[in-house]
Specification:
The chain is of the alpha+beta class and about 260 residues long. It folds into three domains: about 1-30; about 35-160, Immunoglobulin-like (Sandwich); about 175-250, no CATH class. It is built from six helices and nine strands, in the order H-E-E-E-E-E-H-E-E-E-E-H-H-H-H. It has helices spanning about 1-25, 105, 175-180, 185-195, 200-205, 225-250, and strands at about 35, 45-50, 60-70, 75-80, 80-85, 110, 115-125, 135-140, 155-160. The strands form three sheets. Strands 2-9-8-5 form a four-stranded mixed sheet, with no helix packed on it. It has a three-stranded antiparallel sheet with strand order 1-3-7, with no helix packed on it. The protein starts with a helix and ends in a 17-residue tail after the last helix.
Length: about 260
Amino acid sequence: MINKLRKYILIAFSAIFLLGCENKLEMFNYGDGLNFIYNNNVDSIFNYSFVYGPSAAVSDTVWVKVETMGYISESSREISFIQIQTDGNNAAPGTHYIPFDDASVKAKYVIKKGESTASLPIIIKRDASLKNSIVTLVLGFKENNYFKSALPKRSRYIIIITDQLSKPANWAAYAIAYFGTYGVVKHQFLIDQTGKKWDDEYLSNELGFTSSTVFAGGINSNYDAAYCNYLVAVLKARLIAFNTSRISQGLDVLKEADGTIVSFN
């Protein structure tokens, strides 16, 4: 009798425990949702400049990666983007990018059946205003019939657009350690002297610099300290020669727009 009583108590306790677990699990059931795919917050910002591309280009495509939360569907599901306004200079739909509800792009914003990820096109436009300005396009997800939520830490993606040279995201701790503080004039000097773009792709693939703000974590497998030391030594020598030539012509040494002297210190 005692053994039977213990058995019933154990069964009852288990049922209560499982019921409690079910209630707790239901609290986190937000339905199907979407996230942007990136490794850390720094990677949620993409710097784009038309200055690197063909001079005749009037538009370009930035590919944004997204992933789903919840079950994989056996039918395709539409994604709805929204622009999140900031306190800065916001990109204007129709002027700086093709609106998300435009027929030319709307049909492309889908997660295909049986898939949980997708690379989706954001078409940006080369408006004349970008020659003298930088605009920000902050992407977010709009709730629709398929997707209801997003994780706060992965719910936004930022595209910074210009037609000027701009600071690459990968110009972080290691780039600063070797080449000093970023400046547009310095950037142009680096391009002129090396024939390289000195954009995020170059900094990552050629020098091994990443966007991490933590010094010890700001490199990848492409990093070669000896080559970086050699490169900065060559550029310092070329800057001295360049400034010497300018002075001989009665010109000032190379400076940024705010008067800061260009250097690699």
